[in-house]
Design a protein that fits this description.
The chain contains 16 helices and twelve strands. The chain is of the alpha+beta class.
């Protein structure tokens, strides 16, 4: 498959560097004798422009040994030097890997613009959004009293303002005001591409769909194929996997290396007859069963229920405090209410084929694009996503219809947003004993 084009800065041959006599600007003298001046701090960056590295790689290399260098700075330098004919921008087509034929079409539901922090934003985006907000306020009176930005919770940078749980730019028609007035590129990059994700994983470019979209289930089978071209052209702004949240060292069940574990998981998830019960057992370390398991043993299910009910009871009060009439919180509330009411009854985990396919697709995409990267092992990420499917069975039991109900899918996605994308899992399962208790039930 043709991939995105990246531009690799490469110094032109025949250049000569003339150092500044004293503190000041160096000059690069071109083969035609013309001198181009540049600040001293750019020289080291320029020397890394050899046509083999993209801006991000140059920035990473230059940051080794202290003094963080932003990739955006390298991009700006490369563009300026290209304009002065000091640097060539060599196009490189990168191959893109996908898993499980990802498909998606945005339903413009606006649900992801609620209860979600978009930030920290780059400085140029902050300036552009501030300007656009002022222009929008001439047409949208409420914006005159609502600031466009707010500080990140850790004080590091700024995010889009969230007011009453909604992004300040989410219109009454649930469409984005920035997009509507100024075009898609006026939105932060996250908003432009969500839920399509591109990640760089051990040198491989992966493109897939994040299982954080509340309407993913509507188009995952027949929607347009997700390709690199579906993202913006040029540098895709690859995300590096989120850093792990602090969890103590895991027990013996998490033994394989992350890469092996990830490959094994993705292989299982591609099996056409993998059941949810079978996935739980294998994630817990049990050998594959043929035919695949279709239900959890009752005593094991009881252990799970006790755990989930404990989770639910511990969180209901907190969730109630944040309850809002939105898809996200409405469903999260429903999830916890349903769990709190659970008795020790083994859940029926035989999902109808469309639901099974959706669950495995969502888990596989989450593992593939490393949405589970906050958790310290891929297997744990798959486990937490699978628990979301179990919760969805409780909240909105799937019927035998072909259609996947919004209630089922959104419960699973709401769980994912809270426990995988958020850090709540680390709070709930704060040590290896809790995780082992959960996994041990299925071995
Ligand atoms: S900027 Fe637009 S797309 Fe992004 S969260 Fe706000 S309303 Fe949604």
């Amino acid at each position: 498959m043709a991939g995105p084009i990246q531009y690799l800065p490469c110094l032109r041959p025949g250049l000569r560097l003339v150092p500044a006599a004293q503190a000041g600007e160096h000059s690069v003298v071109r083969a035609d004798g013309k001198a181009v001046r540049m600040p001293n701090r750019f020289v080291a960056l320029l020397l890394l422009c050899d046509g083999t590295r993209a801006a991000r790689e140059i920035a990473e290399r230059a940051s080794v040994g202290g003094g963080e260098v932003a990739a955006e700075l390298v991009v700006k330098l490369a563009e300026q030097m290209a304009a002065h004919e000091v640097v060539d921008l060599v196009p490189r087509v990168r191959e893109v890997e996908t898993w499980g034929e990802p498909r998606h079409a945005c339903q413009t539901c606006g649900a992801s613009c609620e209860h979600h922090l978009i930030g920290p934003l780059p400085a140029e985006r902050v300036a552009q959004i501030t300007r656009d907000h002022a222009r929008l306020a001439e047409h949208v009176p409420r914006l005159r009293h609502q600031p466009p930005l707010m500080p990140m919770p850790d004080g590091e940078g700024e995010a889009l303002a969230v007011i009453d749980g909604r992004c300040v730019f989410l219109g009454d028609d649930r469409l984005c005001l920035l997009h509507g007035h100024f075009g898609a590129q006026a939105k932060p990059l996250t908003c432009q591409t969500f839920p399509i994700a591109s990640v760089e994983a051990e040198g491989e470019i992966r493109v897939g769909v994040q299982p954080s979209c509340y309407t993913l289930h509507r188009t995952f089978r027949e929607g347009p194929r997700v390709t690199a071209e579906a993202l913006s052209e040029g540098d895709l702004g690859y995300r590096t996997p989120a850093s792990s949240v602090a969890l103590p060292a895991l027990g013996r069940s998490i033994a394989a290396t992350p890469m092996e574990e990830e490959a094994t998981l993705l292989g299982w998830l591609a099996e056409p007859d993998l059941t949810l019960a079978e996935l739980f057992a294998r994630v817990a370390g049990a050998p594959p069963a043929r035919p695949p398991r279709v239900a959890l043993p009752l005593d094991k299910a009881e252990a799970l229920h006790r755990l989930l009910v404990g989770v639910a009871r511990g969180r209901v009060a907190e969730m109630a405090a944040h309850r809002a009439p939105t898809v996200h919180h409405g469903h999260t509330w429903a999830m916890f209410s349903a769990l709190a009411a659970l008795e020790a009854v083994a859940p029926d985990l035989t999902l109808p084929p469309p639901h099974r396919a959706f669950v495995m697709f969502a888990i596989g995409q989450g593992v593939f694009v490393r949405e589970t990267g906050r958790l310290p092992a891929p297997r744990l990420g798959a486990l937490v996503l699978a628990l979301g499917a179990l919760v969805a069975v409780q909240v909105a039991p799937p019927g035998q219809e072909e259609e996947i109900s919004d209630g089922f899918a959104q419960a699973m996605i709401a769980w994912n947003r809270r426990f995988v994308v958020g850090v709540a899992f680390a709070e709930l399962f704060a040590g290896p004993e809790a995780i082992e208790a959960l996994l041990g039930g299925w071995r």
